[in-house]
Design brief:
181 residues; Aminopeptidase; 8-stranded mixed sheet; 4 helices; 8 strands
Length: 181
C-alpha cells in the first residue's frame, strides 16, 4: 500500500477497546479536561502549555488521515471514552511513530493501552503494510516502558538529557518494532 492508495482510516475493534477515527468535530470538554489534568499529562509535552478547545481542534486537524491517523479510544463494555492514540506515518520509509494517552484515570492499569497499541500495530503491519513502528517516552515513565516492552518493542537507545522533567534533565527512551524480525 502506498500513500496514494490509502483508504479511509478504519475503526479498529478489540475485546475491550474500540478505536474510532477522531475528527475535529469530536473534540469536546472531556478531552480538554484530560489535557489540563497534571496527572494525565505528566509524561507528555502538553504539560507545558495550557490547552483550549481551539488548540485541541488544531492538533486533531493536523492528522490528515493519510500521513497521520488519530483515533479516540472507547471502552466497549461501558461505551466510555478513555483516551486517544495516534500514528504519524512516513510512507517513503514505511514507518510510523505511535503515541497514546489514556485520559480517563479510572481506566489506568487495566491493560487497555496495551490492547489499543496492539490494534494499531496490527493495522500498521497488515492494512498499511508498514515495516516498522516506533514509540518514545520519558525514561521515567515506567508503566509505558513496561507496556512497550511487553509488545515486543526493542530499545533503540536513549536521547540523553533530552528534556526537563520536574526540574531535572531526563532521557527520552526510543523503542522500535520491526515487522520482518
Amino acid at each position: 500500500m502506498t500513500q496514494s492508495t490509502i483508504k479511509a482510516i478504519q475503526k479498529l475493534e478489540g475485546e475491550r477497546i474500540a478505536l474510532i477515527p477522531l475528527y475535529e468535530k469530536d473534540v469536546n470538554h472531556t478531552y480538554l479536561a484530560w489535557l489540563n489534568d497534571p496527572a494525565v499529562i505528566q509524561h507528555i509535552d502538553a504539560r507545558y502549555h495550557s490547552q483550549s478547545l481551539d488548540s485541541l481542534k488544531s492538533f486533531v486537524s493536523s492528522f490528515d488521515q493519510i500521513n497521520g491517523h488519530i483515533w479516540r479510544m472507547v471502552n466497549t463494555p461501558t461505551d466510555t471514552p478513555i483516551g486517544n492514540i495516534q500514528m504519524r506515518i512516513n510512507w517513503l520509509h514505511k514507518t510510523a511513530d505511535i503515541g497514546i494517552l489514556i485520559g480517563n484515570s479510572n481506566f489506568w492499569g487495566q491493560g487497555l493501552a496495551k490492547e489499543a497499541l496492539n490494534l494499531v500495530i496490527q493495522y500498521a503491519k497488515s492494512e498499511l503494510q508498514l515495516e516498522k513502528v516506533t514509540m518514545a517516552t520519558r525514561a521515567t515513565n515506567e508503566r509505558m516502558l513496561k507496556t512497550i516492552r511487553s509488545l515486543g518493542f526493542f530499545s533503540e537507545g536513549n536521547l540523553k538529557n533530552q528534556v526537563i522533567y520536574e526540574n531535572r534533565r531526563v532521557d527520552i527512551a526510543q523503542y522500535g518494532l520491526i515487522f520482518s524480525e
